[in-house]
Amino acid sequence: MATGSTEHNDSNEHNPSDEHRHPKEHSYSNEHKYEFLLRILQDAGDLRECSKLVLIDLCFQMPALRSLLLLRDPGYKVFAKMTQGQEVVIHEPMLETHDDFDLEISFIDRAYQSKTTLIDEQPQFKKHLWDDEQGYNIWRLAIPIQRGPMVYGVLYAECQKDPHQHPWLSSESFRFVISHLSGEVANHALTRQIDNEKKTREKTEQELLHASKITDLYLKQIIALQEISHRFARGASEQEVCRIAVTQVLQHLDIDRIAVFLINQQNGKLYGTWGTSDDGEACDESDFISDIPDHPMVHQALARQDFVVINDHAVLYYYKKPVGTGWNAMVSMWDGEKAIGWIACDNLISREPMKPYQKEILKLLGATLGEVLIRTRTEAELKKLNQELERRVTQRTAQLQALNNKLAQANHQLARISKEDSLTGLANRRIFDDSLQREWYRAKRYNKPLSLMMIDIDYFKNYNDELGHMAGDRCLKKVADILASVPKRSTDEVARYGGEEFVLLLPGTNEQQALELANSIQHKMAEENIAHPASKVAKHISLSIGICCMTPDAESAPEELLLIADDALYQAKSNGRNQVCCLKSSFDHDLSR
Fold first, then answer.
1. At the top level of CATH, which class does the domain 5-193 belong to?
2. What gap in Å lies between CA 269 and CA 292, rounded to an integer?
3. Residue 348 near residue 255 (C-beta atoms within 8 A)
4. Could you confirm whether 559 is annotated as catalytic?
5. Which residues of the chain have pLDDT under 70?
6. Which superfamily is assigned to 233-373 in CATH?
7. Which residue in 353, 265, 345 sits closest to 308, CA to CA?
8. Where do the CATH 3.30.450.40 domains begin and end in the chain?
9. What is the rounded distance in angstroms from the CA atom of residue 530 to the CA atom of residue 229?
10. Catalytic residue selected from 238, 371, 500, 501
11. pLDDT digits 0-9 by tens, 219-245
12. Which superfamily does 429-583 belong to?
């Protein structure tokens, strides 16, 4: 059944108009409920608890048969759900909307896109609401969850009564609940983003650690090979050199079995020198003499220099008798253009697969042993090997340094994102709250004044409606730039408080200094002369500023400074806007609003 919907005029951002910011005809019960919600939601602590309280309140107030908190991720997913008379259910990870729910996504999407509360014009009859077999006439309600320019999701409810004239939707409690929920959702989204960044960073660190371990093993093997190469030269004959080579390789390099074979260039025969038995012990194989085997691996090894031939599924031999299977590798040794022999190795003992760096180690081993065996070319070939080793070590070190630099940049970027307001570049609300607590207790300790300005752009909603949200964003950035240029001390803090509201925290600044600074801000805004065609107080963008200056004592709290500055801002706006108002702390000050 096709139904229409109407847009509710209340904005979901915490940017209420003057008529709703401090309504004159508030009843005692509404104020009492607001204060009650304030205390409960402040005690909630996180999005899970806040969502539970909001859904319970929604089902009780409207009343709603069911209510959902849908987050955009990027499609709509269910974070929390509640059926009237049942407990609130929190889903982590979130559920896809089609998993359990019969929802008209276009209705929800219109609220999301328009950033406006939507209500059905006429009720619909629905059956099988979740596990309920009974049918109901319901009105659908969709409230965007918005923080600043960002919309994170929609609060959806199916109500038993017509919500159009329901007083709760226009109450201070409703606006506070939605504003608080929007803040928690925004914090949740930021936390998830930070978690994702953290996971990416941890993955990068793990990959870097793995690469570092492989590199360390490779470097240790190279260092060991360098030590072995110095010992090769101690041999007085080819047989002695090969004995040293086999025993040292088995002892210091990560190789199971190794054998060195030499080619007699005069008769073309193959001679054994030293090798490894089938139980892994070094043994003299000088009695082995054979023709050069007609085997594909031998042909490949003798076809080119500096080339390791590997057979992953080979039959392994000892004195031409098969003793097992595994990988087998060969690398030839050369005197110029002539092959003088080769080195063969396998994994008969450990049965472990070939490690990534072992191919390179075998190349170096073959080159090194060939150089020692060709004594006349030992110095030149050994120098070349050392230069190659140094180049590779430098290359690996540079790669590790580059990865470390990228990781440091990623950490710096993550820290910056967590502190800044994404639109204006100023400190965000969380950083401001931390600064207020810190400076309050510092001022209390040293008995120093602490001033706070709350700054609001006059008729900013009209500005957005007239010129569009992109122009509004540019305006917010310009105002932020002006405010950022004002502080003179390193401890002064400028932050975006929410929507078109900004705060300026001034440690060690008395009331007169704060007033002078506020007037300077007003003067700079007038000089900028940013046209405001929809303003009722000026032809350009203007500001209303509320100031409170306090010297903290044992009886006061940071929240008092905020509330009085907020009252001063309200007074400035009530007096006609585009002006500065300063209120002082007193025992008879009404903090119950």
1. alpha beta
2. 6
3. no
4. no
5. 1-45, 100, 128-133, 375-385, 410-418, 585-593
6. GAF domain (3.30.450.40)
7. 345
8. 5-193, 233-373
9. 78
10. 500
11. 888 888 888 888 877 777 888 888 988
12. Reverse transcriptase/Diguanylate cyclase domain (3.30.70.270)
